[in-house]
Amino acid sequence: MSRLGTLGARLYRGEVGYDFVGKRKIWYGISILITITAIVGLAVRGLNMGIEFSGGAVFTTPNTKVSASDLRQTAEDASGGHTVVVQELGRGGLRIQISELGTKEALPVQENLAKELGVETGKIDTQLVGPSWGEQIASKAWQGLAIFMVLVVIYLAIAFEWRMALAALIALIHDLTITVGVYALVGFEVTPGTVIGLLTILGYSLYDTVVVFDGLKEASKDLTKQTRFTYSEIANRSLNSTLVRSINTTIVALLPVGALLFIGGGLLGAGMLNDISLALFVGLAAGAYSSIFIATPLVADLKERDPKMKALAKRVKAKRAASAKAEAADSASDEEEAPDLEDAAAVPSGVVGQRRQPASRNRGRGRPSGKRR
């Protein structure tokens, strides 16, 4: 068995573990700092909305040797200073995207691009997107997100309890905020692919959290009938038992997404992959973090406020104090008996006494041996 597998088995049996729940204030502080950074980035820089949301025109050129920077300059001059985004396509063509460009303004841009490339105007494929279509997409996305959140809360409240539902909802909002904040800081374009990526990471984050919650539910059955562990300790044991599984799942999920983002979008220049791959990469990492460091410690915080759990914590504390006191008394009595035994075993110098012989060496002396002479 590998070292990671051995560690996972020991974590599952509770032989080793890390106190995630006990150090929850540290994780809360880190999450608050990251969330504030994301919100500040979103407020200062804002989101770079694609033409699907802001409206505009998309021009697709045939195979050309003209550089992307030259076409960008041509498009900016022809459009009157509108924001221009140029992406290289796999077949050697270019995709030129100009936001907030109307139908009348699109024709001069198309003609100037054809002139720069030395081709006919009809060879430049032009698509116009109205802002109303983007508004419909945004509205549908918000509706889908709201319905998803409501169904998640209802399901978790029924299957587990309301505290777990609330903790999972906070973890999901945490993941969304971080992902959107990273989008604002990086400046990547927000497209319908971004929305798809956001909805995908919600499902993944929820799945990892539910696995931990299910183990916690099983481990906390009849918890108040014992006095060995508190609820926070049981929650920490449940979290440690699924820790290696969560790490493995996250790594396996991040590897292909990272390949899309860094190799496909970065090295190969497939910019169309950046929107969905960035949302998936950041969301998967944030979801794994929140399921371990946010959701379960938050459930333990809420549960420890229950009067039954408070009473359990007092009983556990009292039992451990009594056990510690009994162990201290036993160790003290052992220390007192040790000098007495040493004094009894020691023989003072100058005093001669009868030496004790083993019983086996005196056995049979003074008695007939039973032999006849």
UniProtKB/TrEMBL annotation:
Gene3D superfamilies: Multidrug efflux transporter AcrB transmembrane domain. InterPro entries: SecD/SecF_arch_bac (IPR022813), SecD/SecF_bac (IPR022645), SecD/SecF_CS (IPR022646), SecD_SecF_C (IPR048634), SecD_SecF_C_bact (IPR055344), SecF_bac (IPR005665). Residues 321-373 are annotated as: Disordered. One of its GO terms (cellular component) is plasma membrane. Its main location: membrane. It is a multi-pass membrane protein. Residues 362-373 have a biased composition (Basic residues). One of its GO terms (biological process) is protein targeting. Residues 332-343 have a biased composition (Acidic residues). GO terms for molecular function: protein-transporting ATPase activity. Residues 111-304 form the Protein export membrane protein SecD/SecF C-terminal domain. The chain crosses the membrane at residues 26-44, 141-158, 165-188, 194-216, 247-270, 276-300. Keywords: Cell membrane, Membrane, Protein transport, Translocation, Transmembrane, Transmembrane helix, Transport. It is found in: Cell membrane. Part of the Sec protein translocase complex. Interacts with the SecYEG preprotein conducting channel. SecDF uses the proton motive force (PMF) to complete protein translocation after the ATP-dependent function of SecA. Forms a complex with SecD. Part of the essential Sec protein translocation apparatus which comprises SecA, SecYEG and auxiliary proteins SecDF. Other proteins may also be involved. Belongs to the SecD/SecF family. SecF subfamily. NCBIfam families: 2A0604s01, transloc_SecF. This is Protein-export membrane protein SecF. The lineage of its organism: Bacteria, Bacillati, Actinomycetota, Actinomycetes, Kitasatosporales.
